[in-house]
Amino acid sequence: MLQDSYGGRGILTWGLAPVSHPDSTPMRELYHQLNCTLGTVSMASNSSFFCPLTLRGGLGRRPSAPSAFPYLNYDPSLWYHSSSVLALALDALTLPYRLHRDSVPMWQMADSLAVSGRKVVAAYGAVPLPMMQGSSLPDALTACTEALPWKPLSACPEPDNGRLYGQWATLKGYEGQRLTRSEFSY
Q1: pLDDT at 175
Q2: Closest of 96, 85, 157, 67 to residue 121, by C-alpha
Q3: What is the chain's alpha carbon radius of gyration, rounded to the nearest angstrom?
Q4: How many Cα atoms within 13 Å fall on the side-chain side of residue 21?
Q5: Single pTM value for the model
Q6: Rounded to whole angstroms, how far apart are CA atoms 56 and 131?
Q7: Where is the protein situated, by its record's location annotation (predicted)?
Q8: Angle CA(171)–CA(175)–CA(102) in degrees, nearest 5?
Q9: CB within 8 A of 11, min separation 6: which ones?
C-alpha cells in the first residue's frame, strides 16, 4: 500500500529481533526462525531496503555470541537492555534524514545503501566510540590497533572481506572533539 501511495519514494524498513525468548523450546526456536525468514523476505520485497536489527549475532540456528561493547555495561539477554542499545542505533541510523538543517532525503539514503538491487543491509555501531576528550577522530581510530570499535547490530553482518557497497556514518555527542587533526605529521 505504501508503494502504491508513495511511488518512487524510499521505504526504509527496520526489523527488530530479541536476543532470546523466554521459555523457549527447540520447536519454538524453529518457529521463530521461520517467522524471521518469512518476515525478512516480505520486508525486503516491499521496501527500498530492509535492515534487521538485533544483538543476537545472527538469526540462524546457531548464532554467534551477542555483540559485546567493551565500554558499555549491559546484559544482552534482558530485553530492556538490548532494546535500548537498538533504539540508540535506530536514532543514529535515521538521523541523516531527520535533521532540520542539512538533511539528506530518505530516497538518497536508500539509493546509496541499496545499490545493484541489494535490499538487505547491515548496521554496525560503537556504543560509545572510544574517543577521549580533546582528541580527534583520526587519533581515536588509530588507537584501535587490534580491531575497529564497531560491532554488528544486524542479523546479517557484512562478509569479512572488507568490501562495502555503501556506507553512512553518524557521530553524536562530539561537540568538543575535533573530527579532523589540527596538525599534519609526515
Answers
A1: 66
A2: 157
A3: 18
A4: 13
A5: 0.75
A6: 26
A7: Cytoplasm
A8: 60
A9: 2, 3, 46, 47, 48, 110
